Amino acid sequence: VVMALLPARKYTEGRVEYALRSLSLSPRPMTVVLIGSTGNGKSTLGNFLLDPREEHTLDDPTFPVGITNKPETKYVTVKSMGGLTIVDTPGLNEGQCEDLEHMIALVKQLNELQSISACILCVKFDSKIDKQYKSTVEYYKRLLPQLFENNVLVVFTNYCTDERSRYYRMRQKIDEDAIVKNALCEVSKGLVYEPGYFLIDTMPFGEQTRLEHEETRWCILDCITEQLESVDLHKSLKVAKTAAVKKINEQEIEKAKGEIIGYKEAIRSANSGMKNPFHQIQTDKLYLLSIDERISSLNAKLRCLDSDDLETSLVWSLDEKWKWFKTQSKEFEVASEWPIADYSWWDNGKITEKDLNKKAYSISVKVKGRFMRGLHAMLTIKVEKRHKYQAEIEKVSRELKALKENATTASNRIENQKKAHQSLAAEIAKYEHYIKEREATIEKAEKDSMTILEAEEMLEKLHLA
């Protein structure tokens, strides 16, 4: 859409009635949003678009206009007349809290509307194209990207066309084309079209001047009705971040990045610390395997030794020889180192009398007989294994006890090392979680817009700051 100030044509009462009737009969209501910095005539333009008569704009305006040097519009206001709905908005550059609060209210209001027909950027004709103007235009582009795609008009307000104003603009050699071009240049950046623009005086003086600017009003409404298609926002608008919010975000990003560096260093330290417990656990496990094998072997040996099975502990023999028959009587005392459990006796069969008396640790033997060529006998003593190998059993038991104590120590050490390993792993997981949180903070802070909830939370931070 390329639109300039059209030549003035007679704006009859019939044409006014036609315009209002056309809006009323429109199958889709026309909604216009007014945006711009404070003091650029948004409310005054809204009144003029709804009803240009002085009885309305001066005596009983729909939107209050400033009568002092302080901003008058403090809230988003929606007013309708016929088929035309105007959304008047507070201006930017009133303060970091006020700006954000106003934009939150604007987004909430726009999300409640079914559709938007046009977005009018109000620029005072004699405004300077300075840093503030540029930042304002850039902000609205981020706030209302869907509308800036095709539905933005620029209206230069306070463009007086009475004879006196024309004379002084000529005498001062005001370059109107350059003023318009410079202002539109900032609006057009990043857009695929040249926004339409109009120059208007919403407080015209004199009949001819009034008719001229009422004609311009009609051109604006006609352009919106005939050349712009309404945009359905689908309640999807977000709040673009103001300069104050971006400054806080920059601080949050810097802080988060510093914390991430610290957490990564802590993770490296924890990973290094995890190597020692892991190595010790593996060493102790190998040691436990060797101990278990030794304990198993000693237990088998102990079961074999510490039993009531009998085992020969002593074999006593008698072997006396001679060459003739001889009556002989012999007495012997055979001692045992361990308690005697059983015994057996053998001789050469010539004993006529035999007396064996078993005691706890000895056996008394008394034999008598007539022996030819000698006396031969053998006494075998048997004891329980647990008695015979008592010293060995005690030695094995002491070794088993020591090995079990070592195994318990190693097992406890493994458990402690596992706990240390788990503690370090949990610490690493905690730091990784913190890193993800900080990365999410950075990602959120780097975004160009916020949800309404996020914007309200940021507004609280600004108030606290």
Low-confidence stretches: 1-26
Rg for CA atoms: 55 Å
Mean pLDDT, all residues = 85
Terminal residue distance: 44 Å
Please estimate the helix content.
40-55%
Give the strand line-up of the largest sheet: 2-3-1-4-5-6
What summary fits the major beta sheet?
Answer: 6 strands, mixed
Multimeric organization: single chain
Structural class: alpha/beta
| Count of individual beta strands | 12
Overall 3D shape: rod-shaped
The amount of beta strand, in percent, is 15-25%
SSE pattern: HEHHEEHEHHEHHEHEHEEEEHHEH
Question: Counting H and I runs of at least 4 residues, what is the number of helices?
Answer: 13
Textual characterization of the structure:
The chain contains 13 helices and twelve strands. The chain is an alpha/beta fold and 465 residues long. Strands 2-3-1-4-5-6 form a six-stranded mixed sheet, with helices on both faces. Strands 8, 9, 10 and 11 form a four-stranded antiparallel sheet that branches. The longest helix has 63 residues, at 243-305.
